[in-house]
Amino acid sequence: MSLDITSKEFWVESELEGESKRVFDICNGCRRCYNLCPSFNDLFERLDNESVDGDAEKLGPADLRSVTDLCYQCKLCFNHCPYTPPHRWDLDFPRLMMRSKAVQVRRDGQSIQDRFLGHVDRMGRLGSAFPRLTNWALRNRINRWLMEKLLGIHRHRVLPEYAPQTFRQWVDKRQARAADADRNRVALFYTCTVNFHEPETGTAAVKVLEKNGIQVICPEQRCCGMPFLDGGDIEAAKKNAQANLDSLYPYVEKGFDVVVPGPTCSYVLKREYPVLLGGETAQKLAAKTFDICEYLMRLYTEGKLDTGFIRGAGRVAYQIPCHLRAQNIGYKSRDLMQLIPGTSVQLIERCSAIDGTWGLKRQYYDLSVKVAEPLLRDLREGQADVTATDCPLSGLQIEQGLGKKPVHPIRLLAQAYGLEEK
Predict the structure, then answer these.
(1) Any alpha helices (H) in 75-158, and if so which ranges?
(2) How many Cβ atoms are within 10 Å of 285's Cβ, its own excluded?
(3) 194-221 tens-digit pLDDT
(4) Are strands 289-291 and 314-319 parallel, antiparallel or unpaired?
(5) How far apart are CA 279 and CA 6, in angstroms?
(6) pLDDT score for 355
(7) Does residue 421 carry a pLDDT above 80?
(8) What is the distance of C-alpha 188 from the center of its chain?
(9) Would you list the domain boundaries of the chain?
(10) How far apart are alpha carbons 89 and 107 in whole angstroms?
(11) Please, are residues 321 and 394 in contact by the beta-carbon 8 Å criterion?
């Protein structure tokens, strides 16, 4: 019941405390997630404290809050855990932490920091209205100092730049290809990051899909809602989820697949919307949602993928994002890139520790960089020709540590087709 928002007990603090201690007691006996993330390390240190002596019942409210605040929702513990549903112990640690954050926010109110970081669409529209001015402001030391003081965004955190033209503007100006009854059809959930910051990823996605004979449409959409969930605002997340469901589901009914070039967003549409919204339509949307490389590899297994690549990518160091690993779909991006002749892919299964809004925050910046160091070390030692990741937030951490921005695998595919210059 860790995210059963329709239950009366969901918001009752004593019920949450009881569920948390039940879960923490199971985790204490298992410890399989030791060193997986700061949240578990903090939990086990508190359980090992002499005054607690391994008894989860002795943990107080401050202990529970600390464990919650250190969880950045990478979701990896869910796949790591042997006691997830349908096990009788019914353990879902990420959703327990999400519930704990939501109850905390309802009790104490939401911080200015979380309110600001949650409204991705609003920030995107404002920043994109004057991209040059916004980008200058985000690089200005005085402005960054003010952002840290007022909003809690660390002054040294690399932030994404705003593009001169949004992806939505590019789509609206472009002549869409005519529909064909024999072609596969997809609705592209292009994500906030692609729209405001990395439209080149979206244009590459459209060109690659069309290269493979697929009709692409881009319905109106909002942020998937994950930043709201990070900040404990479940109602705001539900509103965005419902708006996206209302926009996307009519296309699902017409036989469209929903394709997403961002692992966090594809995870949320697949895994969180059915829980947040309930009902058959959310389940059907989830069943028809695919990460873009997952979708293209499905075409390959059906013998429908165009493999007429004209350019290799060389040595690629590929960081697989946590939210792709959490989907249990395998290594689709790696497998797709390895289809390109003259390309070798080094798979790096390391967390970037910036998931969602957590790594942007002043209070977690140093810990985020520390947790990401094994990833950055592997990338430095690999000496690849190009670094790739599907996750734009991982991209920020990599750019922070290496001084060079990685590319989305779909862009390497577009380059291999000759659809995009290197």
Answers:
(1) 76-80, 93-108, 112-118, 120-129, 131-139, 141-151
(2) 25
(3) 999 999 999 999 999 999 999 999 999 9
(4) unpaired
(5) 13
(6) 78
(7) no
(8) 16
(9) 8-108, 112-151, 167-300, 307-417
(10) 28
(11) yes
If you write DSSP's letter for every residue of 329-382 in order, what string do you get? --SHHHHHHTTSTTEEEEEE----S-TTTGGGBGGGHHHHHHHHHHHHHHHHHH
* Count of beta carbons in the 10 Å neighbourhood of residue 170: 17
With contact defined as beta carbons under 8 Å apart, do 267 and 325 qualify?
no
From 291, 289, 223, select the one nearest 252 (Cα to Cα).
289
Q: Are 65 and 17 in contact (CB under 8 A)?
A: no
Closest to 122 in 3D by CA, of 43, 39, 176, 192: 192
Q: Dig out the tokens for 80 from the structure.
A: 């790591």
CATH class of 167-300: alpha beta
The reply to whether 307-417 shares the fold of 167-300 is: yes
User: What six digits make up the tokens of 65?
Assistant: 């809050």
CA 104 to chain CA centroid, nearest Å: 23
Q: Sheet of 314-319: strands edge to edge?
A: 343-348, 314-319, 386-389
Which token pair is 46? 């508190």
Q: Give me the mean pLDDT over the 29-53 stretch.
A: 95
Tally the residues of the chain: 422
Note the pTM of the prediction, 2 decimals. Answer: 0.94
What is the DSSP-derived secondary structure letter of residue 11?
G
In Å, what is the CA distance from 224 to each residue of 71, 265, 420?
Answer: 20, 6, 28
Residue 7 and residue 1: Cα distance in Å, rounded? 8
Give tens-digit pLDDT for 234-263. Answer: 999 999 999 999 999 999 999 999 999 999
* CA geometry: angle 173, 176, 179, nearest 5 deg: 160
pLDDT at 177: 63
Instruction: Using the Cα atoms of residue 55, residue 61, residue 67 and residue 73 in order, give the sign of their dihedral.
Output: positive
CA neighbor of 288 nearest in space, from 315, 260, 262: 260
Res 176: pLDDT:
62
Contact 207, 178 (CB under 8 A): no
The CATH architecture annotation of domain 307-417 reads 3-Layer(aba) Sandwich (3.40)
Alpha carbon of residue 196 to chain centroid: 16
Which residues, 6+ apart, have CB-to-CB distance to 389 below 8 Å?
318, 319, 320, 321, 352, 395, 398, 406, 408
- pLDDT at 356 (0 to 100): 78
pLDDT at 57: 95
